[in-house]
Amino acid sequence: MAPNHGEDIRIVVSQGQEQHSHNGFHIQTAKRSGKSYGTDNNTAITEENLTREEALTALTADEEQKLLRKVDWRLIPLLCMLYLVKKLDETNVPYIIAEIPSNLLIKRFKPSRWQSRIMLSWGIVTACTAAVHNTTGLYACRFFLGLAEAGMFPGIILQLSYWYRPDEIAVRCIWIYAVGNVSGILGGLLAYGFHAASGAGGLSGWQWLFAVEGITTVLLSFAVLLYLPDFPGNTKWLSPIEKSFLQARLPQNSPRSSERDFVGREIVRALKDKRLWLFTLSWALMTCGKNGIDFYRPTIIANMGFSDIATAQILNIPISALSIILILFLGYSANSARYPLPLYPIGCTGVIVAMYSILVVYPNDVGVYIGMIIGIACGTAWFPVMWPWRAQTVNGATGSAFAIGFVNSYGQVGDALGPQMFQERYQPKNQVPFGLSMGLIGLCGIVCGVLWRITRQTEGDTRKHKLARLEAKKNDEAVLDDVSDRDLNKLRD
């Protein structure tokens, strides 16, 4: 049937099935059967003898909600802990080098083992940093720390893609980011406390900080190994029906554990997709424009008269607190699907440009501090609303791992380039680097606008599908049709 643009069509198909069409996007629903499939009998049903429609209708709407909550409680707290520990200590260059290979290996070795290995290795390196006595040793530790940490965060995003639909990732992502940004508060308090304990046991405050963080990370790595779920298909605390349901409800382009560990043509396909390069460019522009000023943050605080390290750390807390508030607000708003997802990151870039203009026009200490707080907080909130958008446009297990790892690694070049703008010749007002940062964020907003145009069909279909699912749940129905990557098909044509 040809699509009838501009109006909704509601047609009874057969046996309680209904089909809807809105602006060319077809939505077919069917009544859910619930426990008639025997969800309490783990031996009656296997994953293999259910069709996709049977799996999608096997649970009622209430049962689906309870299942997702069960998955959330098993998965999200551990992923939040992973990100929190990582945020307490970050690095750059070797992280970029090893990010993609690490993400490609996570499926082969399973997330619980691979993420535990990452935590164990970086915990050991962090603890060893406490024994450093010169700059050469420090540089060596930082290099190996980046190498050890590589793949942890893109592995988190990839693992979410195995469990949730792209339009459901936002609300999970915001909690991971929100807890991760507690590191700014926790790190400031720890630095303040260990500074006061300097000299105890013959160690300086910074040595105690590295030793305690490293040992804690090593211990937590064993918790990840034992308790982090891998994939829906091999999780013991799910019934066969639940396993089938969780996998059947994913879009056709989502990664699945049943796929081969490595498919080279998916990498080639990803490299030919212009969206990969535009997403990476937007990441690089944002990290460069945001992290340059973030790197200069201690100097801004010192210029206000707070040169004591411990006190300066306390003044970093408002940035983390505001970041958490913005992340939660934007994430839950995006999760409602009321507005197109790209509006949120584009709106963030607009606010950042406005705040950075304060740094250029009114370069006094208080004005710079206020502009910095709001600008950096909006920049931090930009990432968790970008990841669900990126997840909509990845394909396959290998392609998803590569694309997510590629964006997160090469998009981080701004971490290295951004601080280079703040050179001594521009001090004390730094209007030139502030202006450059503002321009980079403005370009990021433009790139996001171009991406919105290129991904508008897939993004729009994803949002309509979520609204259709929410409506269908009211009638205890399941949406049978799914979103296809129509933008990718158009790019191929």
TrEMBL record:
Keywords of this entry: Glycoprotein, Membrane, Transmembrane, Transmembrane helix, Transport
Coiled-coil regions, chain positions: none
InterPro entries on file: MFS, MFS_trans_sf
Keyword Glycoprotein: yes
Main location: membrane
Pfam families in the cross-refs: MFS_1
Gene Ontology CC terms, in alphabetical order: membrane
Gene3D superfamilies in alphabetical order: MFS general substrate transporter like domains
GO MF term set: transmembrane transporter activity
TM region(s), chain numbering: 118-137, 143-162, 174-194, 206-228, 276-293, 313-331, 343-362, 368-387, 394-413, 433-454
UniProt membrane topology term: Multi-pass membrane protein
Subcellular location: Membrane
PANTHER family (alphabetical): PERMEASE-RELATED, TRANSPORTER, PUTATIVE (AFU_ORTHOLOGUE AFUA_6G08340)-RELATED
Designated name of the protein: Major facilitator superfamily (MFS) profile domain-containing protein
Organism of provenance: Fusarium sarcochroum
